[in-house]
Amino acid sequence: MNSYRIGVIKGDGIGPEIVDEAIKVLDAVSVAQGFNLKYEEMLLGGAAIDETGVPLPEETIQGVKKVDAVLFGAIGGPKWDNLERHLRPETGLLGLRKEMGTFANLRPAMVYDELVNASSLKPEVIQGVDIMVVRELTGGIYFGQPRELLEDRAYNTMVYTKEEVRRIAVVAFDIAMKRNKRLCSVDKANVLEVSQFWREIVEDVAKDYPEVELSHMYVDNAAMQLIRDPKQFDVILTGNIFGDILSDAASMLSGSIGLLPSASTGKGVGLFEPIHGSAPDIAGQGIANPLATISSASMMLRYALNEQEAADRIDEAIKKALAEGYRTGDIGDYDAKEIVSCSEMGDIIADYASR
After folding, report:
1. Which fold has domain 1-102+260-355?
2. When you count CB atoms within 10 A of the terminal residue's CB, does the N or C end of the chain come out lower?
3. Are strands 213-218 and 182-187 parallel, antiparallel or unpaired?
4. Could you tell me the pTM of the whole model?
């Protein structure tokens, strides 16, 4: 029996509620598939500040290096908004990602048939959409040197090394091999030398993946195409700033931020989390939507633990729950047959995933 150690960071706000439901589902599917999960809780964010005085304790830094993957809820809230920047919850999360060496952000955007009317786009445009955006996280204009803010001018520098481009391209091609074997690399090679450099390296990596159909698209056109015809995309590979923008645009195709997972992976242990925040206004009320966190647990199984069948079980269980008309309150206006609590949704999906 395979056994895995999972770091669990519940965080703040609704974080503990949604992570508990993801663990409930993971426990059910691990029994059904015959592997073992051992959880190790760690502190981050506001909860860590309250207990230790810092947003990222040394125990957490060391702990994430000893596990196979990390499941994360959400951090932050008004309670900690007025702290100095280095003590704020968000600073702890950035520090954790740096310590973990995560350079690839995986952001799926999928549209469930039962929630097709939740999007602001026409149903015929988005029905069947299933996109994976692979964004480079640690290079590009956000981190490039030199950078300067002066009285009469300011500048930032977009920099990528060959290794940075190659390693993110390998991640994207590997994911494409597990999906529909189509990859679109997004850049601005018509005006940026760094994008010409990016494109050349991606094409070189593509030689190792002859089964994957590679295409290129300029970022302005890609933004338009995401809205005009999103179904043309399978995997989108792009740099830091372009990925920041495009992944947010793609996330809204689904119509609800409470549905979408994400992962940050790289040199070692991956961090798997919903894209939404800690929603402190509804914390403790039992009405949070756990689907994004449960989907993040599925991504963890698929991309970190290579438990593909277990991930498929969770994905199918979510689809079945939605098809049966179960909805949390945030998506209750869309063909709901029964409005359920956060915990009840977890129970339903755990039951379906175990069959």
Report:
1. Isopropylmalate Dehydrogenase (3.40.718)
2. N
3. parallel
4. 0.89
